Amino acid sequence: MPEIQECYCSGLQLQSFHTANKTTDWHLIALYCDATKDEPKDPSSPWARGLVGKLNATSKAKRGNTSHQTPLWPPFLAANAPPAGFKLEDLVLAEVHYTSRSIVLNFGHCWFQLQYLTHTSIQTYHRQHWEVLKETSYIGKGETAMRSFRIGLAMEFEDFVIAFVSHDQVFQVTSSGKNPLVNAP
Fold it and tell me: Measured between alpha carbons, how far is 46 from 50 in angstroms, rounded to an integer?
């Protein structure tokens, strides 16, 4: 479990970044992640080469504690889900909230809550820098490894990418149509 001040600082950092860039188009364009060591990887995928891969409606990637993992792709937007009445590209980051244990993002049609189960950092990238990182930044063993951290989940917007990075990818993502902070202690 991360230290409480780590969670508050991360939340304040992201909230301040979002507020300082209010004029940005905050429509969500795509979700990305690094694969875990045990996840099956198509040989032609970026994940097989140690690169960040783009998620889609058929993605099966899950994160969380071993006994309770949740999908990174919003389940109500999954290919086999009943129509939600909106798609990923309709989501607009409207508000950033934080608690002592999580970041909560209001996307208008739905809410994303990312709970820190171990140490997870928030990195913001200008989109052009993200393009370089995701196409060239290899994770793995040996002399060619370019980064030791993993992209747990990254959210791509018009000008920026918000990435939740960690060494072990142990965090929990919950997508919901309701504000998870309502009735929270």
Answer: 6
Residues spanned by the domain of 79? 4-176
Count how many domains the chain has.
1
Q: Which long-range contacts (CB under 8 A, 24 or more apart) does 144-147 make?
A: 145/50
Is position 38 within any domain? yes
Q: DSSP 3-state helix, strand, coil percentages of the chain (rounded to 5)?
A: 20, 30, 50
In this structure, is the dihedral angle defined by the CA atoms of residues 57, 59, 64 and 70, taken in order, positive or negative? Answer: positive
Enumerate residues 6+ apart whose C-beta is below 8 A from 34: 47, 52, 53, 139, 150, 151, 152, 169
The span from the CA of 118 to the CA of 167, in Å, is 9
185 located within any domain: no
- The residue-averaged pLDDT of 82-109 equals 93
Q: Which of 165, 135, 139, 161 is nearest to 151 (CA)?
A: 165
Q: Is the pTM of this model over 0.85?
A: yes
What is the mean pLDDT of the segment spanning 136-149? 63
Q: Provide the 10 A C-beta neighbour count for residue 125.
A: 18
Tell me which DSSP letter residue 167 carries.
S
What tokens were used for 133?
């990182």
